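Weekly puzzle thread! Below is a chain. First person to post its structure in token form gets bragging rights.
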Amino acid sequence: MRLWGGRFRKKPDELAHAFTSSLSFDRRLAEHDITGSIAHARMLGRCKIITAEEARELEAGLERLRAGLASGEIALDPASEDVHTEIERLLGENIGALAGKLHTARSRNDQVALDLRLFLRDEIDALRTKLAMLQETIVTAAEANLDTVLPGYTHLQRAQPVVLAQHLMAYCTMFQRDRERLADGRSRLNICPLGAAALAGTSFPIDPAFVADQLGFDGVFSNSMDAVSDRDFVLEFLAAAAITMVHISQLGTELVLWSSAEFGFVRLDDAWCTGSSIMPQKRNPDVAELARGKAGRVFGDLVALLTITKGLTLSYSRDLQEDKEALFDAVDTLGGALEVLREMIATAAFDAQRMEEALQRGFPTATEVADYLVRKGLPFREAHGVVGQVITYCEKQGTSFEDLSVEEWRSFSRDFDQDITNYISPRGAAEAKASPGGTAPARIKEQIAAARALLRE
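Winning reply:
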């Protein structure tokens, strides 16, 4: 069945049909297509474009179709052009010629725009829930590691001591921004395009506001040409998804790095590792690696749709059919990555001893020693130079700050005194960072409380 063809003398070539058919992927819009069609049928009856009885028959037929598709009693014909055509064909088999009235005062152009918005609205809600669940898992892990100290890194070099809970909460903060970005995009997509028809609107006395209210939209389109051609809401979602995948990739990278023998900061559960076909000893963090690697897919989805839309004239072009595979792939990829990361974090075993051992190398309390001199009255830039000299001396001697006597300290500056030993403890250095948002346990508890409050909202 085709929704067009009266002016054509030949059927589409089979190759052309196969090339243009979208049912293989837009079939997942069937539920939303039916939901939108029910609202449209109600509006047609309410506006007396069709009779009230016809509207009721259309709605009943669509509900039977929904139930049949859900149960598997009804199957979509893969030979159909798209899901919209197939839904109308199946409705016709159920209620007869009346099905042909359903398309009054609408086009596939505004119909597909509606279906996409309904679909993406639901998927954003589901993804925000998955993000919140991941955040909950991270917060729980942070609460369990308020006493675990490890090196913080810049340039992948040991920098300063931090508390593991602080490191974990950094990701919770990132994912909070991701949740907010998705919510922000959802507010803009929640505009109903039905009633724009093909591009110019319709001469029928329709009520788009009624349809919008029936479907839970915040408002209706203001320009019919924009309504059918707009894919900003998909692009905005893909951009938000790509940024979220950046954060997922970063977390995946740290899990890969930390689970290596060289670091040994975490042991991933066997359920989230794989083995080698040739090396029996291997425990490969393949799931974390793929969570990182799949970021490239979502980046590609965004670039693909940007490329598709950049040269289109108003209003609708068939190029826009290509928006769906990119959107569906990004939704599925992001959702899957969020689920596996949550389970990996929930079952990960962090090695506090190994983390503390890593603090014995690299002079991670050097900044604290410089700050000590600043408190004694030395300008920070001079203090920085003095501590650099101490580090050079220790490296030559093969010693650490802890090995130095007070006399050795004082050979670099008379401002050093016996109390310097209070400033070279990695744990003490971390606990001293009590500035807002810092790594002191009291500040981390504030971060955790704030995160839990946001998650309750």
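Puzzle host: Confirmed. Bonus trivia for everyone else. The mean pLDDT is 95.
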